[in-house]
Input
Amino acid sequence: MLKFKFFSHTADIKFRAYGKNIEESFENSVYALIKSISNSKIEESKKIKIKVSGKDMESLLYNFLEEVLYLIDSKNFFVSKVRNIKINKKVFNLSAEFSGDLGKNLKIFSHVKAITYDEMFVKKIKEKWIIQVVLDV
Amino acid sequence: MKNRNVIEKEEGMNVPGVVYASKKIFNEIKGDKTIEQVKNVAKLPGIVGESIALPDCHRGYGFPIGGVAAFDLKKGVISPGGVGYDINCGVLLLKTNLTSKDLIGKEKMLADALEKKIPSGVGRGSPFQVSYKEFDQILEKGSQYLVEKGYGMKEDYLFCEEEGCMKEADASLVSDRAKKRGIGQLGTIGAGNHFLDVLEVEKIFDKKIAKVFGLKKNQIVILVHCGSRGLGHQVASDYIKKMEEEYGIKKFPDRELICAPINSKLGKEYFSAMSAAANFAFANKQIIIHWLREEFINHFSKSKIEVLYQVCHNIAKFEEYVIDGKKTKVCVHRKGATRSFGPGRIEIPKEYRKVGQPVLIPGSMGTASYVLVGTKKSEKLTFGSSVHGAGRVMSRTEAVKTIKGENTKKRLIFQNIILRSGSDQLIIEESPEVYKNIDEVVDIVENLGISKKVAKLKPKIVLIG
Output
């Protein structure tokens, strides 16, 4: 299955991420986000465990992806792989394990400033989960 | 009036919308949600006058880019989405005592040296390190604190919007998360459309005002575009979340329009946190000024670098205008717009006050940039605002599909412009053809009378991400 796809947007970056369950679609949205910043292959030299919560599914996704940006800015850490992602859909919280590498080893072409709520959705269509996000760059 | 496109009031809109654009530009933006966003902003409580989009406008999130909206202090709101995620992203113009002749034969060496000295900082951080205690001082005092510590001179902040420090800043209202994102990034440019250019004054349009600004033909100047990096982005996100918690998300056509009454506790807190982020952006550029001076002196032993002016692009401010014949203070949101005050305004440095403030309009990579001067007319038409650049027309995805990076590089070589970039993809994404024509945008601005041309600048060295 296709993991993610980019769509046209005048100034920013818009993507959709897909998954057979919500966890997989969230995981793939991280890969789309990282792909918007660097083209390099990222080694898995370091692991970070994260916990995120939200008020609804969109804000959970927003906060989850924001964690990726937070790690880039505060720790120069770029996610390569997401593992053990668990989402509680009732209380909107999530735990996951990121592995990745430091930015000094990568070629970076963009700095995503923020995740936005613009056109954001998290939907289940038939048996597939689809996430749409616009990134501020 | 030519180039003024009125969007009539519809249900829910408190004021009409106005898009200042040529027919061509107006038709271009019809496809991309800008007009819908102008209408949405017009629906916000307490908006005054008109919901405005300038000739460089394009779709943003919530508010359009190139958008200006003013709000009544009693009934109005303040919105993080009306300022944008890159709080106080702005432009700094430095003038040197060098001319293009001094640069001959040294261009490549200077480009390499500047690329090394001024970091993009993305994923790598900055060599400039401070303690959290000092960092809080920077957030509250901006450039002024760094000048006190020896990273510049008093004139650096005197020739800066807000004199390099928004006084309402309160570092305690900035989250630890935002501070962690920003503390390692002072003195960095970032990526995307941020840049550092060395340019030559190619043409003077207004000799008298150019003299007041200290500009001469063939003079070398430096233009820097950057903002508040991870810190500002996090402040915006934090306050969007806080406002959603306080006011809920159901009321607005777009979640990014979330706002708080200007007079509310949360509204005031956002303004203070935004001011701290703005001060970070001022300080960020102050470090870059310091490093530029250090580097230039290595290559040109008698070089002097002075600040011509620094403007804010993404900001909310309290400003006074004559509305319906009465002097009224309003909260002006500029998102991808430059203040363009005409002669006499107290906010302008006294050396420029008789002529109006410098309005700095960067072009795209390899095209001209402009210095204009603010006008009284802008205070009547656009709440003292002008464009902030050419404005994008083509998406990054389309750029990657249709533009060859090699062609862009060749064209710049042909124009004798030295380009330095961390990545080829960024060269494609920021290629001149993804932007509107800067000359056309500046002509519309001059025709409207919201700022007047003073000088045209030609790039010699372009540094991006």
Q: What stands out?
A: The helical segments of chain A are 22-35, 57-75. Strands of chain A lie at 4-7, 13-19, 46-53, 77-88, 93-102, 114-125, 128-136. The longest strand of chain A covers residues 77-88. Chain A touches chain B at residues 6-13, 37-39, 55, 58-59, 62, 66, 69-70, 72-74, 76, 78, 102-104, 106-111, 113-118, 120, 134, 136-137 (CB under 8 Å).
